[in-house]
Design the sequence.
């Protein structure tokens, strides 16, 4: 059987309250029985000696026994559950409760028996009698027999005390149950309400509505963590979904131009409008090459942009890597008459060498691509014990201010017409940024139109 959180919490509160109240009443009753019994037995001894004293004071050598006073003491004792019999030295009865009023004595005995049965069903009690000597100035003048229901008994007021105590326990129990029900219901409502909301948010997410968020805060830590986790999940799914749509749109956009060009060229040639000469076929071939490059770039993008980009880290000298890449570019720089200045020191870093060299190649080839003849490109590498700073600066065409925030986005090209000719698809920087971020580093750009561009890479030397 499945219960709601609310039912379970309320039931547990009630259960705890019932267990506590029952335990308190049982333990109290057990202790009460033991101590109250001892108290009653002690008290009986005290009452007996008080009666003996009081009766002894009613004897006077000159006048003998004051029978009326003994009688009033005897009636008082009878009312308290004691049957007394006073005899003088000769064994003559001075006063006897049984003789005075035997009906009252029997009534009193059966009342005490009832009191005891009401508390202890099956109680076995009997009449007990104790005898005490009565002395006057050191000499025995008689004796008193005190009888009562034994071994001990509860008077009406004793029983009333015990019953009141038990009634208090019952009232406390009832109030506790009521309170635990109310508090349980309130508490469970406070806990289950935000959980219910989280469930409905999660259901919305599972149906594909990623926009739903749960902003309500609870005073329960775990519930806030659950809400945050679900909100993060929604956020991630939403951004994944956006990325997916964006990527599809971008790819469609990128494919459209070369495909349209190819289509129109082919149609013109099929219709005989154009002759299929070498030059036109070459132009078609170039478009096909562009498509090919684009498909290759898309493959790379998928590899580098995925969140779990795996890095194969080793320790190597970044300065040496840069020098080697620079040497590979020497001819291209020379043919464009661009000066390439490399100023690096030995900087050992722990990183994925292939991927880092991919970034440097991207940035250096961009610098070469976007710098006019007779320009200059500076590569410098500095570092301290924690990290390195690599700068690749050119005196090229620069990037317009309005384009700067977007150049790391995929397929973004600052100058579309020019870039189409240079062949860039606009993903080199996207890949560079993804690799650097996977290394817990940062890439920054500073640029001024027609003056030049500087890319700065900051990388920690050691990564976890
Ligand atoms: P692409 O393959 O088009 O070069 P990138 O992602 O490498 O793609 O660069 C994105 C855009 O940023 C480029 O199209 C270009 O407009 C601009 N850009 C990148 N590097 C430079 C640079 N050194 N000088 C001027 N513009 C640059």
Sequence:
């Amino acid at each position: 059987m499945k219960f709601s959180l609310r039912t379970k919490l309320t039931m547990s509160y009630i259960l705890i309250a019932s267990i506590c109240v029952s335990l308190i009443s049982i333990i109290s009753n057990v202790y009460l029985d033991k101590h109250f019994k001892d108290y009653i037995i002690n008290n009986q001894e005290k009452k007996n000696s008080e009666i003996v004293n009081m009766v002894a004071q009613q004897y006077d050598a000159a006048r003998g026994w004051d029978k009326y006073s003994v009688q009033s003491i005897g009636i008082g004792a009878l009312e308290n559950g004691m049957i007394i019999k006073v005899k003088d030295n000769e064994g003559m009865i001075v006063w006897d409760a049984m003789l005075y009023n035997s009906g009252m004595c029997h009534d009193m005995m059966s009342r005490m028996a009832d009191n005891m049965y009401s508390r202890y069903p099956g109680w076995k009690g009997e009449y007990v009698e104790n005898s005490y000597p009565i002395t006057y100035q050191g000499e025995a003048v008689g004796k008193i027999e005190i009888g009562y229901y034994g071994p001990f008994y509860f008077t009406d007021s004793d029983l009333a005390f015990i019953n009141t105590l038990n009634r208090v326990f019952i009232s406390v129990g009832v109030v506790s149950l009521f309170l635990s029900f109310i508090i349980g219901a309130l508490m469970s409502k406070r806990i289950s309400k935000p959980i219910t909301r989280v469930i409905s948010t999660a259901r919305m997410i599972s149906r594909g509505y990623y926009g739903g968020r749960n902003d309500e805060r609870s005073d329960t830590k775990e519930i806030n963590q659950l809400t945050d986790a679900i909100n993060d999940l929604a956020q991630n799914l939403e951004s994944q979904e956006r990325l997916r749509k964006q990527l599809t749109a971008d790819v469609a956009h990128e494919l459209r131009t070369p495909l349209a060009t190819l289509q129109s060229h082919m149609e013109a040639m099929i219709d005989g409008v154009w002759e299929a000469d070498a030059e036109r076929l070459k132009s078609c071939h170039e478009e096909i090459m562009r498509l090919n490059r684009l498909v290759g770039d898309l493959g790379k993008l998928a590899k580098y942009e995925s969140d779990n980009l795996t890095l194969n880290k080793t320790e190597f000298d970044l300065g040496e890597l840069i020098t080697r890449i620079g040497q590979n570019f020497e001819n291209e720089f020379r043919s464009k008459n661009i000066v390439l200045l490399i100023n690096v020191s030995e900087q050992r870093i722990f990183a994925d060498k292939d991927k880092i060299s991919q970034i440097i190649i991207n940035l250096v080839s961009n610098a070469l691509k976007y710098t006019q003849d007779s320009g200059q490109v500076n590569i410098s590498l500095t570092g301290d014990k924690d990290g390195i700073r690599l700068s690749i600066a050119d005196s090229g065409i620069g990037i317009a201010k309005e384009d700067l925030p977007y150049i790391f986005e995929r397929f973004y090209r600052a100058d579309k017409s020019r870039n189409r000719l240079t062949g860039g698809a606009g993903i080199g920087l996207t890949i560079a940024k993804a690799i650097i971020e996977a290394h817990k580093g940062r890439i920054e750009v500073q640029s001024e139109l027609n003056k030049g561009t500087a890319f700065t890479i900051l990388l920690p030397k050691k990564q976890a």
In short: The two ends are 49 Å apart (CA to CA). The mean pLDDT is 87.
